[in-house]
């Protein structure tokens, strides 16, 4: 499995955007209840979730973490910080704390986030364009079966099974 960075809302400010303002208070509450219920099925307890964070710096930090062989653990910690602890992963200090927690050099991580040219995303953007990704999560199986959405477990299973049958033929 390969994770590809994707900025869902690149125009979001560093401070984040109140989700109740974006979706309306009632819609936001209903979406949050649904999210929490789906998360519990997989052992996740969602909390916080008052703000949509700008993920740009987090994605840059993740690319550095991958280079340092800490990508998966860093990604997991960012996920927990944002979805479970309600931290703003758009803020540099939050990312540096997470990096330090997973064994990354704080100063090197900061330099990487601040100095990395956005060209680093070019190969990812080409894949996003190629597979017409416009939401997360999106799964691409065997280079041509696309499944979008976190509640599409059966569709993802079927795509994997179909791809496996094709490979064994």
**Unreliable segments of 5+ consecutive residues:** none
C-alpha-based Rg, rounded: 17 Å
Tertiary shape: globular
Structural class: mainly alpha
Q: List the secondary-structure elements in sequence, H or E.
A: EHHEHHHHHEEH
Counted by DSSP, the helix tally is 8
User: Separation of termini?
Assistant: 22 Å
Oligomer: single chain
Helix content: 55-70%
* Number of beta strands: 4
* Residue-averaged pLDDT: 89
Q: Give the strand content.
A: 5-15%
Biggest sheet layout? 2 strands, antiparallel
Strand order of the largest sheet: 1-2
Indicate the topology:
Layout: E1 17-18, H1 19-23, H2 25-41, E2 51-52, H3 56-67, H4 71-84, H5 92-101, H6 106-115, H7 122-130, E3 138-141, E4 145-148, H8 153-168
Antiparallel strand pairs: 1-2, 3-4
Helix pairs in contact: 3-4, 3-6, 5-6
Give a verbal description of the structure.
By secondary structure, this protein is mainly alpha-helical. It has a domain of 39 residues. A hairpin with a 3-residue loop joins strand 3 and strand 4. The model has no long low-confidence stretch (mean pLDDT 89).
Care to give the gist of this entry?
The chain is built from 8 helices and 4 strands.
């Amino acid at each position: 499995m390969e994770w590809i960075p994707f900025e869902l809302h690149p125009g979001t400010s560093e401070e984040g955007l109140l989700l109740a303002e974006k979706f309306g208070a009632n819609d936001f509450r209903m979406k949050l209840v649904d999210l929490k219920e789906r998360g519990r099925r997989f052992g996740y307890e969602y909390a916080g979730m008052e703000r949509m964070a700008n993920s740009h710096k987090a994605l840059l930090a993740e690319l550095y973490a991958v280079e340092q062989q800490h990508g998966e653990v860093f990604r997991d910690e960012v996920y927990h910080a944002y979805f479970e602890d309600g931290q703003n992963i758009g803020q540099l200090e939050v990312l540096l704390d997470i990096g330090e927690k997973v064994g990354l050099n704080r100063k090197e991580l900061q330099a990487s986030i601040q100095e990395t040219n956005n060209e680093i995303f070019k190969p990812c953007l080409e894949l996003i364009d190629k597979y017409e990704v416009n939401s997360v999560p999106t799964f691409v199986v065997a280079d041509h079966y696309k499944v979008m959405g976190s509640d599409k477990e059966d569709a993802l299973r079927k795509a994997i099974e179909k791809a496996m049958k094709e490979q064994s033929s």
